Amino acid sequence: MSDSFVNDSVEASASKPQILAVLEKVCDPEIPTLSILDLGILRDVVCHPKHLEVVITPTYCGCPAMKTIEFDVIRALDDAGYKEVKVTMQLAPPWTTDWISKRGRAMLLKEGIAPPVESKGSFGQGIKCPRCTSHDVSLISVFGSTACKSLYRCGSCLEPFDYFKCH
């Protein structure tokens, strides 16, 4: 379970663990091995008397994956028996890479994507190649395979890789 999912205002519900178990299987369409919980975009689950509300925050405004994620959330919960589901897009506070769980960071590495550097130092400092862990890396393009990633190249193994940008 993601360590970024924290909100004490959620109503207690006997079914909340089951709801989170369902949502943990909803993946980001751009990084399909990463769940929306691990990515930290699932911000809240509220059990209203007549419907379930799922609150998500995009990784950046205009993220094209959000409509797909909304559809996938509704479909997954519908398949699990939750028929009345509303997905709310929450823009504030803005998403931050700090919300990516430890498991999510490990999954990024496993996929060959360098996770965001924890320290908020200067641009590009501390990035390691996800294949050989070398710090000898150079920026190829500010834009990688998606807008939230940059493209780097390792000077040691010479492999290109995506780096998940810090927000």
Short description:
By secondary structure, this protein is of the alpha/beta class.
Walk me through the topology.
Blueprint lengths: L15 H8 L3 E2 L2 E5 H4 L2 E6 L4 E5 L9 H14 L5 E5 L12 H9 L2 E2 L22 E5 L7 E6 L5 E5 L3
Parallel strand pairs: 4-5, 6-9
Antiparallel strand pairs: 1-2, 3-4, 7-8, 8-9
C-alpha-based Rg, rounded: 17 Å
Overall SS class: alpha/beta
Give the CATH level 1 class of the largest domain.
Alpha Beta
Average of per-residue pLDDT values: 86
The CATH fourth-level homologous superfamily of the largest domain: Fe-S cluster assembly (FSCA)
Element-by-element helix/strand order: HEEHEEHEHEEEE
Give your account of this protein's structure:
It is built from four helices and nine strands. It has a four-stranded mixed sheet. The protein has two domains: 16-98, 2-Layer Sandwich (GMP Synthetase, Chain A, domain 3); 112-164, no CATH class. Residues 1-14 have low confidence and may be disordered. The protein starts with 15 loop residues before the first helix and ends with a strand. The chain is α/β, with parallel strands linked by helices and 167 residues long. The chain is elongated.
